Structures are given as structure tokens and as C-alpha cells.
Amino acid sequence: MDIRFGSGVAGWIGRRMARKLGGPAKAGKVPFSVEIHHSTKTLIWSRTFANSHTFTSEFHPVKTYQQGGYWVESTGPIKIQLGVSTEGGNWQWLQRSVSIFRLPIPTIFRPKVSAGKAIVNELYQFEVKISLPVLGFLFGYSGTLKEDVEETIG
After folding, report:
1. Cβ-contact 29, 36 below 8 angstroms
2. Residue 37: is it exposed, middle or buried by C-beta count within 10 angstroms (0-12/13-18/19+)?
3. Do the strands 78-85 and 53-62 form a parallel or antiparallel pair, or are they unpaired?
4. How far apart are CA 80 and CA 83, in angstroms?
5. What gap in Å lies between CA 52 and CA 4, rounded to an integer?
6. Tens digit of pLDDT for each residue in 25-35?
7. Three-state secondary-structure class, residue 38
8. What is the mean pLDDT of the chain?
9. Is 0.85 topped by the overall pTM?
10. How far is C-alpha 119 from the geometric centre of its chain's CA atoms?
11. How far is residue 75's CA from residue 56's CA, in Å, rounded to a whole number?
12. How far apart are CA 83 and CA 115, in angstroms?
């Protein structure tokens, strides 16, 4: 996986934000894995960067796709409401709103998260970018996941 940071003040903020979210604060290629668990109402994603930094979030569906549904990603006190676009067969999260401690963050101060995935040559490729109005690109990461399925017999 490759992690990148913006330049100047944006990069400084990006490194601090990455650390707060459990990621590394140094750019470059790092080992990356993700474990996805689920219950009837929640998906839990645990992303591990550089074999030591883990960032976990929970995804809760609200309504169905046909009903105009969306997902809510929760990471500690931060909640991001996300729609989904599947144009061209790819999956793109569409950020609708962000709140912290249940208080909505106004658009002018809200980090913009751009995240998506595509299947290319039967491999799962992903990219996540975070930016702020005025400052621009803070940090992002991208890469290709290889399936490692654990089976339980018994």
C-alpha cells in the first residue's frame, strides 16, 4: 500500500490526522491488511498499516439502496454519512455529511473524503483521499488487496 501526504500546512495536518486515525505519519509504501467482520446490522473494518497501526471503523446501513439508503461510518466520536455510486461497475463512496460528538460539521470546515474501489484483473484496488477546503489534499492511501481467507472447520 502507498501512503501520501499533502505539502506545507496541509501535509502537517494530514500527518497528525493520520496518526490520530491509527495510520503512519510517514509517506511511502507500507504493509497493509484489512479484516472485515460483520453482524446482522454492522460491518467492522480493521485496517492495519505497517504491521503496527490499526484503524477500526463500523459501517451501519440505513434503509436499502432502492429506498435511497446510505451507510454511516463511525470511528470514535466521528460519524460520516455515505451514499454509494456503482457507475461503471466500480464502488465509490459519496460523502453526505460529517459530525463529531453528534454535532454536524459545516461544509466549509468539513474534511472531504473520497474513497472507492474497483476490481481490476480480479484484484481489489482501492484509493482513499482526504482534503480540506482551502488547504487541499491532506493525505491518502491506495493499493491492491490480495484475498487471504481463513476457514474454520468443525
Report:
1. no
2. exposed
3. unpaired
4. 10
5. 18
6. 889 999 888 89
7. strand
8. 89
9. no
10. 17
11. 7
12. 11
